[in-house]
Amino acid sequence: MAGMAATFSVSSASPILSRPSPLSSLSFSSKSFILPMRSFNRGPLSHRFPRIMAFSSNDIKVGSNIEVDGAPWRVIEFLHVKPGKGAAFVRTKMRNYLTGNTVEKTFRAGSTISEAAIYKETKQFTYKDGAQFVFMDLTTYEETRVNESQIGEKSKWLKEGMDCNLLLWNDRLFDVEIPITVKLTVVNVDPGLKGDTAQGGGTKPATLDTGAVVFVPLFINIGDEVLVDTRTGQYMNRA
């Protein structure tokens, strides 16, 4: 556009931090769902969550975690704009960590922005208790309970002993990250036919040991272990 010059920058760096702690090293909802945890002496909160840092809007990049209007946001697009007249600014597209909403917001170039302190803790899924999934810190044996409704569709891929990342902001758990690839066992499927091979075409539904149903090649049988992409729910290959 005449009279304006723009530069576009992209970075894949992610500022999500793995919290250094003596205890242990994931659809979003706007509702808090912190549930009672087993009591442990975890130390002062100020030691567990460092002071939120401020940085300039000129430092915004894809993946930046910023705090705006009392909520944590992740920058998914940005554009530095320097008009022919007037002050320079940064145009962004941001996703709210808590609600999943995406908005566009403009910041004056050089303005101060607070960083959102997003942390993740790796914990192991140990068992399901009614409508709750129980995750354990393998160092302290502290249990964290998360409602099935908050995990959503991800719950069908959870298997006991699986390591997951619990994402937190201001000591508030808001999401659970599961592995991208999981190995599960086929517990129910129509038997394969003679001559079926990995190169053959066609698929059939198979029930896995977590209860999930995926379409697998015709040669897959009960007892086979398969790899599944949890992002798409699709069969990848036989384990």
Automatic annotation (TrEMBL):
How far does the signal peptide extend, from start to end residue? none
Q: Name one GO biological process term.
A: peptide biosynthetic process
A molecular-function term among this protein's GO annotations: translation elongation factor activity
- Membrane spanning stretches: none
What keywords is this UniProt entry annotated with?
Cytoplasm, Elongation factor, Protein biosynthesis
Annotated Translation elongation factor P/YeiP central domain ranges read: 120-174
Give me the Gene Ontology terms describing cellular component: cytosol
What are the residue boundaries of the Elongation factor P C-terminal domain, all occurrences included?
A: 182-238
The UniProt entry, under SUPFAM superfamilies, shows: Nucleic acid-binding proteins (SSF50249), Translation proteins SH3-like domain (SSF50104)
- Tell me the HAMAP family matching this sequence: EF_P (MF_00141)
Return the protein name. Elongation factor P
Q: Which organism is it from?
A: Rubus argutus (Southern blackberry)
